[in-house]
Design brief:
The chain has 127 residues and is mainly α. The protein contains five helices and no strands. 45% of the residues lie in helices and 0% in strands.
Length: 127
């Protein structure tokens, strides 16, 4: 199931409650998103102003490693999930001139944790 409550809710057109968050990207996760946030995102998606993607934990860890190598900034995997869209060149972004990714969250990660996740997920290296 992971931490994809918003993506699943938008796909189903109603709020979805996950049984648990079973992702290393859990620091920003919610089993159920706030109703107001869901309604605003649902309206934006209907107006073709919002698109969602989900990524694996390995994608997120690889993105964290790439950011660390590129910019010497260590972030947690919840942030890496957003970065994965850019590093993987999500098709919708190919014709966009400016992409902004809010990079935050490094208080709960250190290098040994990142290395352990790489090993556990089979996600060594960078994009």
């Amino acid at each position: 199931i992971g931490a994809s409550s918003m993506a699943q809710s938008l796909r189903q057109g109603e709020l979805v409650t996950l049984p648990s968050i079973d992702s290393i990207c859990g620091s920003l996760g919610a089993k159920t998103v706030a109703a107001g946030a869901f309604e605003r995102c649902k309206a934006a998606a209907a107006a073709n102003m919002l698109h969602t993607w989900t990524f694996t934990d390995a994608d997120a860890v690889r993105a964290c490693t790439t950011l660390l190598n590129d910019h010497r900034v260590l972030v947690e995997p919840a942030c890496g999930a957003g970065l994965a869209a850019v590093y993987q060149h999500v098709p919708l972004l190919q014709h966009v001139n400016t992409v902004v990714v809010q990079v935050c969250g490094g208080a709960i990660v250190d290098l040994p944790m990142l290395y352990a996740w790489q090993e556990a997920l089979g996600a060594p290296g960078t994009y």
